[in-house]
Amino acid sequence: NAGVMQNPRHLVRRRGQEARLRCSPMKGHSHVYWYRQLPEEGLKFMVYLQKENIIDESGMPKERFSAEFPKEGPSILRIQQVVRGDSAAYFCASSRNRQQETQYFGPGTRLLVL
Amino acid sequence: QKEVEQNSGPLSVPEGAIASLNCTYSDRGSQSFFWYRQYSGKSPELIMFIYSNGDKEDGRFTAQLNKASQYVSLLIRDSQPSDSATYLCAVSGGSNYKLTFGKGTLLTVNP
Q1: CA A104, A107, A111 angle in degrees (round to 5)?
Q2: Distance (Å, whole) CA B25 – CA B48
Q3: What confidence tens digit (pLDDT) does each residue in A79-90 have?
Q4: What SS3 class is residue B81?
Q5: Mean pLDDT of A24-47
Q6: Of A42, B15, B25, B87, which has fewest CB within 10 angstroms of its CB?
């Protein structure tokens, strides 16, 4: 009964490098959501994806951030040219469907930008 | 701008007492309400969800929803030190799948 899986759990990058965060949803779930938790801040919605489709990316910064959920494989959140302000915990959640369906969270990836 | 407000705490209660956590939300169209627990350095863990006005009980936890007052609460009976964590209130509306979170209330249960 595997839950939502994320890797890596911790990621250290220098300014200007790229960060790739991966998320595999729970078995039977086809909806993936990414949230960011900045230090001392609440969780903020970033993007919602289904297989091969970005449904809503209204919470994504306009530049440097992108997300995908290919037909095969995990969902990827990609941050190009990272800056120190990108340091945060990035959580992935999944649900079976989107209507009144609870979202279950993965363990998160803690990104530290030096 | 949809907002979810929670007292940041810390809320401190003795072991065995009832802990009461409160949350208000701004969007009257909100339809789904969730309580998550987050231990320091860990991910949010779903505790309860509630969709209808009234109370919903699950073990030591009771969620209460009042849509007219735009208020949702979580009661924890017989609080245990292991309940010490940050409790996050989250809200979504209708077909709006986005969860809007409050900043959380830090609960400390003292042995």
Answers
A1: 130
A2: 17
A3: 999 999 999 999
A4: helix
A5: 91
A6: B15
